[in-house]
Every structure is written in structure tokens, then in C-alpha cells.
């Protein structure tokens, strides 16, 4: 369990629902008045961390008033350590007056109040609890000297510092030098670096600016798209969960608190921790309000389990499709064996049939992985260079459109798969229900490039609006294909002419192959309790 100290703001949100905004001098009656809600970025992040199981201490300043008392009780209910909370008679507890009209548009006035009274001396008086923490988190709703004081104490004791630069403003170099991890959203990143966040490449450009200031990890959240992370050694993008969002208030705060509760100090589980944080905030956005919508660890795990259940279903569908096709493979043929998890089900299923029925089937593999699996099972393998044609190849696919054109290469085996597919008299694709789509627009398409000069292809793709990103392995090394090439993932533009795109990519010097498989698939078999077969 991580020991987290949050130094930040507490606000009480007073929400008015109005039909329309009053003009200057106008008085309007309203129908509903929502009760006060807990808010403030510091409080939200402390609650998110505590509900995810972190041992959480909150250093904040409250007024000696009813709002302050109510907030304190709420923190105690969430098992937050409030021993280091400070109160003042000089100002009231922070408040945000929020007016929401019928279209969901809001206007907000914030009274910083006690938050603006939090001083460096207040923080220094509680240095012991910071010194003992694993990490300290701060946002920008309190005075900068208080944050700098907290981070100085943290750095002196080897405690990790996380800065959530929200709301965005220019930051002193001193604070950036004291920051280990920075977590802006896309607009905050742009405000701080001057570089627009448009795609993974520009996110990496943003990260470089932060690295040059001495920050060692950058996490950029991009709303319903997900979140990006980068260290000088590795980077990656973790997509958000697709949910119906009703109110995104506190999404970012939930993400940061949840992440801080899970991330190992050596960042070794960064992708898992971000996946957890994405899940946590995907639950927050499905409920109106701020602190009431921040989920507990149990709720996050329950939501994960539901998905695991559907993961099992997907595996079942892959196996059903594989078995359906394996049962219909004729005897005395040369059979192409595809690559990837779905194709692996097929390899096992056809192996069982060959053994049981003593079939005379020789096979060709489309990847080193499949070759090894087939050899391990004792199947009769042929060298692709010794044959003129393959009778049938059975393979998986990443996505397939209504015309049975598809994308392959998610598993990095596209070159060998295409070679074998092109020499096959018949190609059958086996997929689970997620794979068929009406069109390939917006889908990720892998492009295999030679390592020498790969950057030139990357620049061409970037300058022509394909949003390229090199593919990396989990350990941060660049991914190499079976033939030692690199993969660049691009996005298929809207209204793209696939044939022209395919030809254009092949024309670029340095491109070995790409994952568009046009006019290749003869038959798609979709797994399910009722297997669906679609023929060209
Ligand atoms: N519509 C959404 N659907 C699913 N997940 C979402 C959605 N919006 C946000 N999230 C999740 O919340 C994370 C943080 O969101 P975002 O980038 O909007 O933060 P933010 O701008 O700091 O939010 P806020 O200021 O509202 O707290 C995202 O990385 C994503 O995981």
C-alpha cells in the first residue's frame, strides 16, 4: 500500500441549476438548488487515492466554519489522515459557485478563501509526514510557496514529487526542478510547453520539453481518448475505456489519485497502473458530481472483472471460429498457418484432427512463433521457399470491413503473413465479434520499415497527416519484427482510398510492407455460439 501525501485545495461547490443565465441587473427565479458538494483538486485527489487503498494524508487549509467542518467529516469517513490539516480564522473554507444551464454549459466563480492562506510555514510545520511518504502530490489551487516548501522537504528525503499543473499557469523553474512526475491534461501541457497536443508524436515532443527541465516522467491525460506516459526510456498510450460520460468533473483528479495509489516507485507497472487509473476515472465520468462519483478500489475491481468476463467470451469466440474452420479443412493439402492468438487456436485444433484422422496435411508457418508452436506439436512443416503455392491459409485479422478487406499486423507478423497469403489459393480469416467493422477509417495500420532510414519514412507519414508512432515493447525497447524491421503505426484517414493508400505506402523507400490486406480474404468466419460465415 502506497503512502501518499496530498498538499492542496479544498472547495465546497455550490451548484445552481438555471434555465438561462441572468443578465446584469436581472433577477431570475430558479427551480432547483443542489446541495453543496465537496470539491477542490487537492481534496478530490486525496479522496481518489484513499478510496483506492493508499494510506493518504491531506495537508490543506480550511476556514473555522460549517463548510470546513463538513469537509473534515467527509475526509475522516474516507479514512484520510487529517492530523495535518490546518484551519484559519482569517478566511472561509474555499468555495466554488457553479451555475449550470439547461444545455449543460457552466459558469464558475471560485473563492480561494482558506486555500490561498496556506503558507510555506504551514507545510514546514508538518514536514515529518511528508518525509515519511512514498510520494507527495500537489496542484496549483494553493500558493506556489507552499508547494515549493512541500517538494523541497520531499526531495530532501527521497520522496517522489508529483505536480498536477492545474489550473494551468506559468511555473517557476525552481518548482519544475523539484518535480519528478508532471501530470497535465492536453491544454495544460500546451500552456506549459507551447506545443499543441495533437497525437503521440506531439505528446512526446511535449515530454521532451519537460525532460529538459529535469522532470523524469510525464503523464498527459487526453479526456475520452486516454492517457500518455513518457520517461526518457519508454513511452506509451493507454486508451480510455469507452463509456457513456454524463459529467467529467474530477476525471483528472480521480486518475491522478488512483494512479498514485498503484504505481510502484520504480515505475515498473506504469501501464497497469494507468489502466487502473483509466478504469477509475471511467467510473467517475458516468456519475454526476465530483467527490461522490470517485470510485473505491472494490468498485474499480468489480468493473475490471466484468471486462475480464467478456475477455473470456472473446477467447471462446476465437476458439469457436478456429474449431469451425479446422473441422472443414480437406485432406491432402498444403496448409498455411497464420499468426497470433486466434491462429494459435486453429493450429491446435487442426493438429488434433491430423492426429486423430491421420490426415496427410503439410504446413507452412507465417511467423517464427507459429513455426515453433507447430514444431512443438510435431506437425509436418515445409520451407516456404520449396513450394509454389499453398492450398488454404487460415489466419486471424485485426479488423475486417464490409468488403472483407482488412488490417493485419497487430502481432507484428504482417510481412510473412502477406507473403504466404499471396501464394495461397484460398484465404480464410477467423475472428471474434470485435473484428468486423463497416469501414477501416480511423483504424491503426502497421507499416513495416527497414531500421536504416526508418526516421525518413516516419517524417513522411507525419507530414502527410498519418499520425505515425513507432511501436515499442513493454520494456521500452523499439519492437523488431521477425525479419528485424521496425513497425510504425499510422491512422487510416477519413474517406481514404484504400487501394491508393496501399500503393502509396509501398512506393516509399524504406517501407517493406504494410498491414492493409486488400482483395485477399475469401471467407471470414466469426466465432460465437452461432458461427457466422461471410464469403467474398
Ligand atoms: N468521456 C470519457 N470516457 C472515458 N474516460 C474518460 C472520459 N473523460 C475522461 N476520462 C478519463 O479520465 C482521464 C482524465 O481526463 P481528462 O484528461 O479530461 O482530465 P482533466 O481535464 O484533468 O479532467 P477534470 O479537469 O475534469 O478533472 C482520462 O485520461 C481518461 O482516463
Automatic annotation (TrEMBL):
The active site is at residue 253. One of its GO terms (cellular component) is cytosol. The keyword RNA-binding does not apply. It is found in: Cytoplasm. Substrate binds at residues 11-13, 40-44, 141, 253. K(+) binds at residues 247, 249, 284, 287, 289, 293. Belongs to the carbohydrate kinase pfkB family. Catalyzes the phosphorylation of ribose at O-5 in a reaction requiring ATP and magnesium. The resulting D-ribose-5-phosphate can then be used either for sythesis of nucleotides, histidine, and tryptophan, or as a component of the pentose phosphate pathway. This is Ribokinase.
